[in-house]
Amino acid sequence: MAPAPPPAVSFSPAEVQRRLAAGACWVRCGARLYDLTGFLRHHPGGEQLLRARAGQDVSADLDGPPHRHSANARLWLEQYYVGDLQGDPQVGPGRGHRPPTLPADLVDWRKPLLWQVGHLGEKYDEWVHQPVIRPIRLFHSDLIESLSKSVWYSVPVIWMPLMLYLSWSYYQTLAQGNVRLFESFSTEYSVAMPESVFPGLFIMGLFLWSLLEYLIHRFLFHMKPPSNSYYLIMLHFVLHGQHHKAPFDDSRLVFPPVPASLGIALFYLILRLLLPEAVGGVLFVGGLLGYVIYDMIHYYLHFGSPHKGSYLYHMKAHHAKHHFAFQKSGFGISSKLWDHFFHTLIPEEPHLKMQ
User: Fold this and answer.
1) pLDDT tens digit string along 79-113?
2) 83: helix, coil or strand?
3) pTM of the complete model
4) Numbered residues of the known binding site
5) Annotated binding site for Zn(2+)
6) pLDDT-based confidence at 61, cuts 50/70/90?
7) Using an 8 Å Cβ cutoff, are 25 and 92 in contact?
8) Cβ neighbours of residue 82 under 8 Å, at least 6 residues apart?
9) Which sites bind Zn(2+) (predicted)?
10) Is the dihedral of CA 65, 318, 42, 110 positive or negative?
11) In sequence order, which residues have a C-beta less than 8 Å from that of residue 123 and are 6 or more positions away?
């Protein structure tokens, strides 16, 4: 699953305190020390929660409250292991914490993964849902590899100008007063579409995207490829499996422009075939804004530090549970609306309380 941990190193309490004073966030479980400095922004409970526990034994926190950490979360913790605390009989080796064993590597991380994952067969589903803290390379070609990655700000930079331009263009078309719905079926019962319908159609587009977001995530991204299908396993991994394997690879958190363009073009063509150009166009630009919001929220849920108790704070915790424990539920990213509707909410833990 991950690179082999470094050889056991011992740290004196004084050395641990020096590192804490320098701003590092080290915690321990029994005698085992973990450097969580690089995980602070990612932690679903917020950076301050971990900072408050710096230098402390967090063994009890793993079992809750506020919640019991999943097996994947405990495996994730082991990737931050740096050594043992020496010199204190209260935290001797094996006292209070039995670390899980990291699974053996099933792939060669020195080579592109896309051509390897299809050979995992029945082991793929378990392997892909055991997250690691390392970046992923998919392709041999540097050019194709670069097209499979993207920085977060490419999404608003590329798609917001298009959304604004098309919004103005379609509003102007509606303002001309010659757009009618159902005109291709019956002129007698066609419905005039003045510019006043623009806000309603735009909001409908946002709403339509929220449904597509849920359906794509649930039924495409979380399909379980047959264990004997090399190419379907590859397809799943390139679409979404890579993100579950390396959830904090910041170059793979938003859709790259080239593959995103294909999906966006398909969405536009379907609306264009079903509806008058201006009507379908307004729905499209509403959906396009919904997509931009979705991708920005998704990035923020992984790398942001939302204010405790805020909407995004709860969505960050919700999404982390999806990654680490409940991969078959909690498919909403920007909201839980459709998880409520389709009964795929992540189950609430008993005795949950805020810290």
Assistant:
1) 899 999 986 545 544 455 567 766 778 999 999 99
2) strand
3) 0.85
4) 43, 69, 217, 222, 240, 243-244, 298, 302, 319, 322-323
5) 217, 222, 240, 243-244, 298, 302, 319, 322-323
6) confident
7) no
8) 6, 9, 11, 26, 33, 34, 35
9) 217, 222, 240, 243-244, 298, 302, 319, 322-323
10) positive
11) 106
